[in-house]
Amino acid sequence: VTFKPLRLRCGRWCSGNVGGAAAGDSPEALRAVGRTWEVICIEGNIASGKTTCLDYFAQTTNIEVLTEPVNKWRNVCGHNILGLMYQDASRWGITLQTYIQLTMLEQHTRPMISPVRMMERSIHSAKYIFVENLYRSGKMPEVDYVVLSEWFDWIQNNTDVSVDLIVYLQTSPEVCYERLKRRCREEEKIIPLEYLEAIHQLYEEWLIKHTLYTVSCPVLVIGADHDMEKMIEKYEENRDQILNPYNMQHHL
């Protein structure tokens, strides 16, 4: 199957005013442009070690950690749409990704309660990685892809979903696959290595090669094929850069 790129108006993340405030925003939003807070997103493949990273930084004072709302995806009025998607992506992919886009929007727009918010993935990777993979693999029709993309563009243009730093846990698909098998989550038991390879390729295109969509905020890449003890050392080594993302501008 041949797929033509549908760029629409994507790739505007973090453009314009730093912090995402725009003409017509509330006084509170305009004051936020003064950078009294930071949003950091931990990105990576399935089983790349995002939970370990979040657990490590959750021990730090003045950091709000938001994990992916997986429990919501597993129980929509009693329906596990995450599990349904893995069983039949062609039927349930659009349903799951529509709900993920909504719940991740809720994550981004929650009132800040700490100077630093650290999120597990983002509304951006939901679109640029997982929606893109469904479309490329032929499991999402073009019309569904276009509708979801136009909604995503509207969100970017009308709400503040900006990010100050992406921490990319770069993990080989083979390592992710071994970790995935060890943790034995019910929905993940049927995920093949090929799926992880496809997700890895999209992350590389987006955050390393910059051939997928524009990335307009700093990206810190951390090799994450190591065991937990070594990864904790890496998080400690990169602690200052992670918690002070504006310093990253001088390292890229």
UniProtKB/TrEMBL annotation:
The keyword Cell division does not apply. It is an enzyme of class 2 (transferase). It is found in: Mitochondrion. Residues 40-244 form the Deoxynucleoside kinase domain. It catalyses: 2'-deoxycytidine + ATP = dCMP + ADP + H(+); 2'-deoxyuridine + ATP = dUMP + ADP + H(+); thymidine + ATP = dTMP + ADP + H(+). The active site is at E120. CDD domains: dNK. Its EC number is 2.7.1.21, 2.7.1.74. GO terms for cellular component: mitochondrion. Gene3D superfamilies: P-loop containing nucleotide triphosphate hydrolases. Its main location: mitochondrion. PANTHER family: DEOXYNUCLEOSIDE KINASE, THYMIDINE KINASE 2, MITOCHONDRIAL. Belongs to the DCK/DGK family. This is Thymidine kinase 2, mitochondrial. It comes from Anas zonorhyncha (Eastern spot-billed duck).
